[in-house]
Specification:
This protein is an alpha/beta fold. The protein has 29 helices and 15 strands. The strands form 5 sheets. The chain has a 6-stranded mixed beta sheet with strand order 4-5-3-6-7-8, with helices on both faces. Strands 11-15-14 form a 3-stranded antiparallel beta sheet. The two termini are 35 Å apart.
């Protein structure tokens, strides 16, 4: 439990992750772009008052607004800066000592109707030490001057943000002879005096001058890289400026990955209703449990004293049992969603920024691969892509993706490109699995569609309500859902061509290939016609599902990135099932898939193709260019993996039960990571155990995996109740679901209206 104010932590404590990445204690710092800085500081006046160190901070700050600014002008004079496009004024005022002149300037802002700066940054001391040769009299005078200025700063702090910058340590060995009297001992004495006076001045006042002490910690780590032993290196100054920007702007801009200084968001109307529903579910479950326990005790088996025979209870209440199961599921779900909310919406647990190193990604990868190989078992069947094998495939891919996310490996392009193949492989399995089912079973009933849609979307819909996030935010589920509907529509529309029908005539196979060709044409057209795509998904109610930040561009980008791979999965399933039907391939236990010669040739080609793709992905220089090629070439590595995994008979006959276990809950793992393993909607890392990074990962991972497994069971239980096999009952349930989403839309509209 972090307690306190995250602004206090941002201004006073933290540590370096690597050489240049600063991590504040307990919260996340946002890296502001020029456009964001301008939007935050529009029509603002900022003033920096002090010596050459404050001048350095001034330049680093204005470079966040305009990176083209050069450090030029009178070093010992005032320096103005103005950005006319955003009406931002930033001034540096040269007052190297805390004296009467500085006091007079600050006092002028407190008098009458003079326009006050919105942000005031003050700090000075090294000149006093230098000019007076570090004398005790100078320190005594410094205390008097700070004492006289403190009430004025407190007065300004009622309407402006006022920061007192403590003096950074120096690197004494590098100081010139004229600065040798500036020692760290003297600097500490001046800092202690300033902090004591400012704290005593604001003890009985709500307004408070914020002490900017974090620069001391940063300087302790970096001052040895200073050019003169006094002034900080540029990277450290930039970090201080970014901290200053976060302190002021986070509460205005509310960036997702900037949790420092952000207040807890208020509960929305929909969230309040959701929490009331879960509370009622918990109460209802407890009442029913008590009633059942009471009935059980009353009807407990007992001996009839007259006949000596045992009487047995004759209670049979299947309806109550279904209701109890429903309430029990919602009860557990309510407790889990409370944990989700506390982790990623309430300011209860700490959050930290990610920091990528090669070891943080590759060491866990090696570890889980060893575990996966250790838990090897024989498969129940030896078909290509059998259930155990696909679960195993999903499992190890999901674990790699999780490690990729928590380590922040997206900054390393070769890893990013390989992870893109894993996401494509998930979609490939979507095309392969659903095509195979419809082709073999010929079941296009509503029950099957509702079951799949419920299992895919249940958790995401609940999270949209509880975490106040749009559906498109959890982009992978909308992607899989839309592709499932496309597969269903392709095969269900007239003429319905299934395996049973196609066995009668080869013409039906050509008919199906024609359908697939039409699908490929539509995909190709939409991928190069952004306007048409956006028009389709901008119609209500689709727009409510697929818009993110007011447009569907993000959805188009996500869809386009893996646009062909589902089609490839469907085509592979069709070819494989056709070969299987004609007994071209051998799937016996221990048998190679083809003849020895063909198997060896295909295996060699697959290994070369797999490695060639990896070499290409590793040599990527530009993410945009590689993303353009990815939809067309990702299938190469996917098919290569399938052939390597299935051609040798022994390899096809075994699987990793460790990976398969995770594969069964892969969807829940992918979605849950957003809020209870990572933090700030995947931008950071959740910290349950501060100060012990490895132990924290172990604890949060254990809870995260348990929760994902529990949600998977809850989803399966509710699917049996919400989506029954009886068509008339299913129709009633569907009407209830339509009513639920109508109510959700109504409350959402009311929320939006109240915001405006």
């Amino acid at each position: 439990f972090q307690g306190g104010d995250t602004c206090e932590y941002l201004l006073s404590s933290g540590r370096f992750l690597g050489e240049k990445v600063w991590q504040p204690h307990s919260c996340m710092m946002h890296k502001y772009k020029n456009s964001e800085a301008k939007n935050c500081l529009i029509d603002k006046h900022i003033v920096f008052i002090g010596d050459s160190r404050i001048r350095q901070l001034f330049y680093s700050f204005i470079k966040l607004i305009n990176p083209q600014v050069k450090e030029e002008g009178n070093k010992h004079g005032n320096i103005p800066f103005e950005d006319k496009s955003a009406s931002i004024k930033v001034d540096f005022l040269w007052y190297p000592e805390v004296n009467g002149s500085m006091r007079q300037r600050i006092k002028s802002w407190t008098e009458g109707s003079v326009a006050k700066p919105h942000i005031i940054v003050v700090g000075a001391a090294t000149w006093s030490i230098k000019i007076h040769n570090g004398s005790n009299e100078a320190l005594a005078q410094y205390k008097i001057n700070v004492t006289s200025i403190a009430p004025l700063l407190e007065k300004l702090a009622k309407s402006s943000d006022v920061y007192w910058v403590l003096q950074d340590p120096v690197y004494e060995d590098m100081l010139s002879e004229s600065r040798k009297m500036i020692t760290n001992e003297k600097i500490d004495a001046y800092n202690e005096a300033a902090v004591r006076i400012l704290n005593s001045s604001s003890r009985n006042s709500k307004a408070k001058v914020k002490v900017f002490s974090v620069s001391k910690l940063i300087a302790q780590e970096t001052i040895m890289k200073s050019a003169d032993g006094l002034h900080l290196p540029e990277s450290s100054r930039d970090t201080n400026a970014m901290i200053l920007m976060n302190v002021y702007c986070n509460k205005i801009m509310k960036p997702i990955d900037g949790s420092c200084c952000q207040p807890q968001p208020p509960l929305t109307l929909i969230q309040k209703i959701a929490f009331c529903f879960f509370i009622l579910s918990i109460i209802g479950y407890l009442i029913i449990s008590l009633i059942h326990r009471s009935n059980y005790r009353k009807n407990k088996s007992c001996t009839d004293l007259e006949s000596g025979e045992e009487k047995k209870p004759t209670i049979s209440t299947p309806n109550v049992s279904t209701l109890e199961m429903l309430l029990h599921s919602f009860c557990k779900l309510g407790l889990i969603m409370t944990y989700f909310y506390l982790c990623d919406r309430a300011n209860l647990f700490m959050k930290e920024n990610k920091f990528y190193t090669h070891s943080s990604f590759f060491i866990p990868i090696v570890y889980i691969l060893v575990l996966g190989v250790f838990y090897t078992e024989n498969t129940k069947e030896t078909k290509v892509l059998n259930r155990e094998q696909t679960d195993e495939w999903k499992g190890w891919m999901q674990l790699v993706i999780l490690i990729y996310h928590i380590s922040g490996a997206s900054t390393f392009l070769p890893v990013y490109m390989h992870i893109r193949v894993l996401v494509a492989a998930y979609l490939f399995q979507t095309g392969y699995g659903h095509f195979s089912y419809f082709w073999i079973k010929g079941d296009f009933g509503v029950y099957r569609v509702c079951q799949v849609l419920f299992r895919l979307n249940f958790l995401v819909v609940v999270l949209c309500v509880v975490m106040d996030r749009p559906y498109q935010f959890y982009y992978f589920v909308p992607l899989v859902t839309v592709w499932f509907m496309i597969i269903y529509a392709t095969l269900a529309i007239w003429p319905q061509i299934v395996q049973k029908k196609a066995n009668g005539s080869c013409l039906w196979h050509f008919g199906l290939l024609l359908k697939l060709l039409c699908l490929l044409t539509c995909i190709y057209f939409l991928s190069y016609s952004q306007g048409t795509f956006e028009k389709i998904f901008s119609f209500w109610p689709l727009s409510k599902c697929f818009e993110l930040n007011g447009n569907v561009y993000e959805w188009w980008f996500r869809w386009k990135l893996d646009r062909y791979v589902v089609f490839h999965g469907m085509l592979f399933a069709f070819i494989y099932l056709a070969l299987q039907k004609r007994q071209v391939i051998s799937e016996g236990k221990g048998d190679p898939l083809f003849s020895s010669r063909v198997s060896n040739i295909l295996l060699f080609i697959s290994i070369v193709s797999f490695l060639t793709y990896s070499v290409w992905a590793s040599s990527c220089k530009n993410k945009t260019e590689c993303n353009e090629l990815h939809p067309s070439v990702s299938v190469v590595q996917i098919l290569a993996f399938i052939l390597i995994r299935n051609i040798p008979g022994y390899v096809r006959s075994v699987y990793s039960s460790f990976f398969a276990w995770f594969g069964k809950i892969s969807l829940e793992l992918f979605i849950c990571q957003y809020h209870i393993w990572l933090a700030a909607d995947t931008k950071g890392i959740l910290v349950l155990v501060p100060g012990y990074p490895l132990f924290n990962v172990l604890v949060s991972t254990f809870i995260f995996v348990c929760v994902a497994h529990e949600i998977s069971q809850i989803t399966n239980d509710l699917a049996q109740i919400v989506v029954p096999k009886d068509n008339s009952t299913l129709l009633k349930r569907l009407l209830c679901i339509v009513g639920f989403f109508s109510g959700l839309h109504l409350f959402s509209a009311m929320q939006d209206q109240s915001k405006h």
